[in-house]
Amino acid sequence: MDGMLTVIQDTLEGQIDFEGQKTAENITTAVLAGAGLVALMVGYIQQDIRLTLWIGLGGTALAFLMVVPPWPAYNELPEKWLPVGSGMAGAGIEVDGQKIN
Fold first, then answer.
1. Are 76 and 20 in contact (CB under 8 A)?
2. Higher model confidence: residue 81 or residue 101?
3. Of 57, 63, 72, which Cα lies nearest the Cα of 26?
4. Region 69-85: what's the mean pLDDT?
5. Which contacts qualify for 7-15: CB closer than 8 Å, 24 or more apart?
6. Residues 43, 41: Cα–Cα separation, whole Å
7. For the whole model, what pTM was predicted?
8. Of the candidates 30, 29, 14, 28, the residue with the CA atom closest to the CA atom of residue 74
9. Can you say how many angstroms the Cα of residue 78 is from the centroid of all Cα atoms in its chain?
10. What's the CA gap between 16 and 69, in Å, rounded?
11. For residues 86 and 10, what is the distance between their CA atoms, to the nearest angstrom?
12. What is the average pLDDT value for the chain, to the nearest integer?
């Protein structure tokens, strides 16, 4: 049971790198702006506010599906973190004249 829960948690955890965050933000901005522009033009031409709202909602749903799941494309350049305790803790730091270890 724990193994299955671990697999589900790892799948839904959403690990993306910094470049993936930037890409996701750019995609969101482009899709929402495009959908808003299309919705405005179609709604104006058709004189139908309901159609405008449905197109905007569709664009929002599309943006949601494109960026919310942790797609593997958003984690192509993961950061290499230092292992715990590998740094020099307090090296050369002085506070009020006292050296911190």
1. yes
2. 81
3. 63
4. 82
5. 11/70, 12/70, 13/70, 14/70, 15/70, 15/75, 15/78
6. 5
7. 0.69
8. 14
9. 14
10. 10
11. 26
12. 86
Contacts of 1 (CB under 8 A, 6+ apart): none
Report the 10 Å Cβ neighbour count for 72. Answer: 10
The kind and range of the H/E element at 20 are helix 18-46
> What pLDDT does residue 41 have?
97
**pLDDT computed for residue 89 by the predictor:** 59
Average pLDDT over residues 17-43: 96
Cβ 24 vs Cβ 67: under 8 Å: yes
By the 10 Å C-beta count (0-12 exposed, 13-18 middle, 19+ buried), 67 is classed as buried
Tokens (6 digits) for 96:
């009020």
> Which pair of tokens denotes residue 78?
């993961």
Q: What is the pLDDT of residue 88?
A: 61
